[in-house]
Write a structure and sequence with these properties.
Elements (H helix, E strand, L loop, with lengths): L2 E9 L5 E8 L4 E5 L6 H16 L7 H11 L6 H22 L3 H4 L8 E9 L2 H14 L4 E5 L35 E4 L1 H19 L5 E4 L6 H11 L6 E3 L9 H8 L4 E3 L10 H5 L5 E2 L9 H12 L4 E4 L7 H13 L5 E3 L5 H6 E3 L2 E3 L2 E3 L8 E3 L1 H5 L10 E4 L4 E2 L2
Helix pairs in contact: 1-3, 2-3, 6-7, 7-8
Bound molecules: magnesium ion.
């Protein structure tokens, strides 16, 4: 089953997405997501200029060999641009193989290990009344687990907090971090104010919503190990499902210190792009959940290996699923979620209606649970005509400075 064509489509139905469309000699079409928020055109160029010419004429069935060819053959391994490009190829080939087999992809990955995929949604607010409204709106939509982000008194716009505009009159304060602007916006950060304020937010949420509701929180890489240890300890009374990205974690050993001080479960890895980034974290059981996205970790082929490795140490999945993962990347994650044994939870933010017009998808969200659907392949189709109506627009995630102007992790 030879590959006869491969094309990169960049479209921006509300935000930028990079999609690879691979066509085989018998007319099957597979899709892969290569979206890298704020660096989309770098991945598009990597694919168009350096990968697509290598794909033409290759056997679409040889997924492992193609992955190794692109990974080892480039000599320059890993890195977010490279791994997003390799992921786009890998996912498109799995899509094609599953279509050729006449099965939804999860069947090829071993079949369903569960009937539905537990998802968590993003609640946020500038103050407690807004936050409570947002949590209630998510509960009304069926979510059974909620990520809680709050503004910090004295700081302006910070990570995870919506601008206050409601979506469709629902009263929900949705949050979209990437802003359409030629340069990133700048935010101000104060770690001590955050560390003082956050436990009071979780105390209020627990008092309002009771002890059962699973609550998550994203620290977004902003703390040193000892600060993260202190936060984990101060949140223990509120029984978090996880504390996410508490440190940048590039220095994996630093998590030993955090782990030593707190029993709050830890989730890490949305900016990682290789199993190597997790070797110490998993082997020493320093984390509880792996946050990688299929799109940023080289595709389904390496993600299966990563989750199998994690399973040896009772570490579970928590696949990254914000709206900068396209519906193609989201579907790829859902097929894995359904198939692997060590599933933990799936992040889920619905895309805009425009995005769903461009990417027609068969996955569903019902009563708090996602399912990838039963269509052979991934179950996502790209409408090229609809995509062409939304040309690329520069958009960037913000950057972050301390009060004295020092650059900090965003
Ligand atoms: Mg995160």
């Amino acid at each position: 089953m030879r590959i006869v064509n491969a094309e990169v489509v960049v479209t921006s139905p509300g935000r930028n997405f990079v999609t690879l469309e691979i066509t085989t000699e018998d007319g099957l079409r597979g899709y892969g997501d290569g979206t890298l928020n704020g660096r989309e055109l770098a991945v598009a160029s990597y694919l168009t200029d350096h990968v697509v010419p290598l794909l033409i004429g290759r056997d679409a069935h040889r997924i492992e060999d193609t992955w190794q060819y692109l990974h080892r053959g480039a000599y320059w391994r890993r890195g977010p641009v490279t791994m997003a490009a390799v992921a786009a190829v890998d996912v498109a080939l799995w899509d094609i193989k599953a279509q050729a087999a006449g099965m939804p992809l999860y069947q090829l990955l071993g079949g369903a290990s569960r009937t539905g995929i537990r998802a968590y949604g993003h609640a946020s607010g500038r103050d407690l009344p807004e936050l409570f409204d947002s949590i209630r709106a998510h509960l009304d939509e069926g979510y059974k687990s909620i990520r809680v982000q709050s503004a910090v008194p004295g700081l302006g716009t910070i990570y995870g907090i919506g601008a206050g505009s409601t979506i469709g009159g629902t009263g929900r304060y949705d949050y979209e971090p990437a802003r359409r602007h030629p340069v990133p916006s700048e935010e101000v950060w104060d770690t001590r104010a955050y560390l003082r304020h956050l436990p009071t937010v979780f105390e209020a949420v627990r008092n309002e919503f009771g002890p059962d509701l699973p609550l998550l929180h994203d620290v977004h890489h902003r703390l040193t190990p000892i600060q993260a240890a202190r936060l984990g300890k101060s949140l223990e009374p509120y029984d978090l499902f996880w504390m996410e990205d508490c440190t940048p974690a590039e220095n994996q050993e630093s998590l030993r210190l955090v782990r030593h001080h707190t029993t709050t479960p830890l989730a890490i890895g949305e900016v990682f792009n290789s199993v190597v980034d997790y070797q110490i974290l998993i082997r020493e059981q320093l984390i509880d959940y792996v946050r990688s996205a299929v799109t940023h970790t080289g595709g389904i082929t390496p993600m299966r290996k990563l989750f199998d490795y994690a399973a040896l140490y009772q570490v579970k999945s928590g696949i990254h699923g914000p709206t900068d993962i396209s519906p193609v990347g989201m579907a790829a994650g859902l097929h894995l979620d359904l198939a692997i044994h060590n599933f933990g939870i799936q992040e889920f933010m619905p895309h805009t209606e425009d995005t769903y017009r461009v990417f027609q998808h068969d996955y569903t969200f019902t009563d708090g649970y996602l399912h990838p659907g039963e269509t052979p392949g991934l179950g996502v189709r790209l409408d090229r005509e609809a995509a062409a109506a939304f040309p690329y627009e520069p958009a960037y995630l913000p950057v972050n400075r301390l009060r004295d102007g020092t650059m900090h992790d965003w």
